[in-house]
User: Fold these one by one.
Assistant:
Number 1:
Amino acid sequence: MRKGLDDTLVILRHKLKGGIVARDYDPDLLEIEAWGSELNQVWTNLIDNAADAMDGKGEISITAAKTDGGGVRVSICDNGPGIPPEVAAKIFEPFFTTKPPGIGSGLGLHISHNVVVRHGGRVDVESEPGRTCFIVTLPMTLPQGVSGGTTPNR
Ligand SMILES: Nc1ncnc2c1ncn2[C@@H]1O[C@H](COP(=O)(O)OP(=O)(O)O)[C@@H](O)[C@H]1O
Ligand SMILES: [Mg+2]
């Protein structure tokens, strides 16, 4: 989990130039059962969106904490302009984007949401001007009966 987030930060370093990234990971974070590469796509999409929102000047904060049930809650927050309510209603729809053609595919949040739900988790959004957080909550174990392309790892 921690490593996945850090790997994603390394990959996205070029997009984060100028921006500050603050990290706060719970020291006794437990490993969860998950498809690691799929979750890494989720972190990539959320951090990518946060970086776009701040336009290279703001701050992204990433926190990872244990939930009561032994799962994890990862929050990725930025201090960009926020998501207006009429936009927020559509952000998980496939191909919905407010970015110029060729920049946004509008698929990042749709795919991320599907990945998280397949893991038995949820994505919550809190946004106001100056602070937007995407909060991903994942359980300790995968739900019964779901299958992925690969063997889940811990
Ligand atoms: N952190 C954020 N701050 C402001 N708007 C956001 C943020 N994250 C997502 N959005 C909005 O949600 C839309 C959909 O995001 P996404 O599915 O990742 O597609 P894309 O990034 O290709 O536009 C974005 O175009 C943007 O309007
Ligand atoms: Mg995106």
Number 2:
Amino acid sequence: MAGIIFFRTKDLEAIKEFYRSRIGMTTWLVQSECVILKHGNLLLGFCEREETDSQGIITFFYQGCEDVDEMYRKLQPLAIDEPKENETYGIYHFFIKDPDDRLVEFQAFLYPVDPYLAGDELLLTRRSIREFQDTVIPDELLWKLFEICRFAPTTRNCQSYRFIVIRDPKVLRFLAGLRGGSSAPIVRAPMAVAICTDPGITGRPVQDGCIAAYHFTLAARLVGLGTCWIAAMNRVDVKEKLGIPQAHYIATITPLGYPAERPQAPSRKPANELVHFFD
Ligand SMILES: Cc1cc2nc3c(=O)[nH]c(=O)nc-3n(C[C@H](O)[C@H](O)[C@H](O)COP(=O)(O)O)c2cc1C
């Protein structure tokens, strides 16, 4: 399910310029005298008409207050006020007016909200997180995450994956110490999750495990949590410590927590270097 909110405007060019250049929206679709712009999962349509609709508020929301501050720096001359906390709604926000005199708000929620990321944003902005806040993850959020994980594909839909939640600080320290800097992020989070598969259930434990683990990293990002794939954890000593049968496969053990860093995306090769057509 998706949706578009349409507005009438007398000056489509000015509106397109404003929302694309100033706000950073992209053109999703052009239909005759209408344009539909996209920002994350928000689709806004503007159609050139004799009248303008300027009621309501268009609100863009961001992951953190620092994003709101960045938008404020870009839009300061247009801002009606400075960014501030609003205790009633638990948000951090400021307002501007668009060329049609519509009120436009930029905000961040100051508490966790239900998943909202659009698919492309989710896939493009997942990062390996290696620094975490101490904030405890509520069990309700954890279950939301595991509910999504049930939909990872597996060989013959055998659902061979198991998620072992590790919160014991002694065990976290043990795991973090196994591979020097490579495993160190484990102890910087309030918990870690081992993603394993049972070869008694699947003929393809590696594939099922790795897909489930990647699905987990995306689901975590969706609910606002950070992860980092820690490799080479499929070890005898790790299985002994966690009570995992030696025959089982551990795809990864990832730290899990609210991110305390926002790493830049590492460089990626262009798609035309990676894709080959065999026609
Ligand atoms: C199979 C695999 C093994 C990895 N092993 C480790 C690891 O042991 N420790 C670590 O800090 N990061 C590890 N990473 C994370 C990569 O360094 C990271 O994915 C890569 O630098 C790209 O950054 P991004 O995840 O932010 O896009 C691993 C990633 C994968 C896919």
Number 3:
Amino acid sequence: MYCADCGEKLYYGATNNGKREGAFFDCSLHWKHKDKCGTHFIRESVLERMVLKHIQLVMGYILRYRQHFIFVMEQQLQLESAEKLQTSRKQLERNERRIAELKRLFIKIYEDNAKGNLSDERYEMMSQNYEAEQKQLEAEVVALRQEIEVQERQNENIERFIRTADKYVDIEEIDPCMLRELIKAIYVEAPDKSSGKRRQKIHIQYDGIGFIPLEELAKKETA
Ligand SMILES: [Zn+2]
């Protein structure tokens, strides 16, 4: 659990008698240096309720609008469309074919030169051109492979998250095992008292897929 403002871990504190009802979290930087970060005090019980509610909302959406959830998350993860992935794969294939062709051409001019059919000067020039083109293509191949791998992994991450989420569809209370499986980090904002009431927001970074845009998902709900 982290402070949403300074990024430091939250400090876990309990009241004098050590009872859990009094337990709370606050920004650890605030506890060390009051001037460097403000208070982010939140009761453990309040935080637990907020996290549970967040998870229940997410599970509810996945249960009812699975395809829409996947669609929104794919967009959020800036997943290239299947089309784009295909374009990358085709480009990769083209590059690999051309690299193989260049290798053959290189052998050919080497032989031509050896037989005396190609001047040394011309051979030198052509081989340099081929080599430059090959280097360029090989650099592109590395970049394309990485791009494709990232795209494929993001797809898997969404699928894996949904499979995990399916196990916790009906949760009624926080379970440590579930937290470990689903959540990577929780960021707690400073309390906002501008409205006269104390309000405090949290942001949950889910494992493998990051932040889930609940408002974006809610649009579907009200549509
Ligand atoms: Zn802080």
